[in-house]
Amino acid sequence: MAAAPSPSSPGGPEPEPPAVRYSELLQHLVGERRRPRAWDPTALGGIPSPAKSEEQKMVERAMESCAFKAALACVGGFVLGGAFGVFTAGIDTNVGFDPKDPYRTPTAKEVLKDMGQRGISYAKNFAIVGAMFSCTECVVESYRGKSDWKNSVISGCITGGAIGFRAGLKAGVIGCGGFAAFSAAIDYYLR
Questions:
Q1: Distance CA 21, CA 19 (A)
Q2: What is the arithmetic mean of pLDDT over 56-72?
Q3: Mean pLDDT confidence for 136-155
Q4: Quick check: 180 pLDDT over 90?
Q5: Is the model's pTM score more than 0.70?
Q6: How many CA atoms lie within 13 A of 24 on its CB side?
Q7: What per-residue string of b and e applies to 6-16 under the rule 16 or more CB within 10 Å gives b?
Q8: Are 156 and 126 spatial neighbours (Cβ–Cβ below 8 Å)?
């Protein structure tokens, strides 16, 4: 009787592959044994970026500070509020209206004066609300150590409550709820 050729000999039958254990494979792919891989964009042909200089790091820290974010929101709110005020004054039929003489047509100077006053009024209000919200959100984010939708809801409640509280407790609670809901809706659609 001839002996069977060994599996390592050429021309002999192929050795049977080991059985695949899918549970072990899954543990290595998505389970507890999974090793995090460092993602290097240059390895995939990405554009390599040089290390940041100290000046770049300083500017980055300054731009991420709560004071800078609040100032930026204040300026942006002032510009947006001014534009909104001038727009609403432009479509308002009572701009330049004199209640003592309702049949008199207002002059262009009176209309522009009213538009400017309304624009400045709206600009101040938007600037204050923008600065309050941005500063509050930055402080909440710094305190919580997370950047998620809850920060905007909390800061919206604080800002709306502070604005509404001038008219009383009930107005403060309604302002808190309304501004928090608005912040949640905006955050939901923007994220």
A1: 6
A2: 92
A3: 91
A4: yes
A5: no
A6: 3
A7: eeeeeeeeeee
A8: no
Cα→Cα distances 109→96, 100, 159, 166, Å: 9, 18, 37, 35
Percent of the chain exceeding pLDDT 70 equals 88
End-to-end CA distance of the chain: 76
Report how far Cα 144 is from the mean position of its chain's Cα atoms. 16
CA distance 76 to 68: 12
How far apart, in Å, are the Cα atoms of 159 and each of 7, 102, 119, 129?
Answer: 77, 40, 22, 7
Place of tokens 């554009």: 47
Residues with Cβ within 8 Å of residue 132, at least 6 apart in sequence? 159, 162, 163
Q: In degrees, to the nearest 5, what angle opens at C-alpha 123 toward C-alphas 118 and 128?
A: 135
Classify 159 as helix, strand or coil: helix
Q: For 11-50, what is each residue's pLDDT tens digit?
A: 667 777 777 777 777 777 777 777 777 766 666 666 767 7
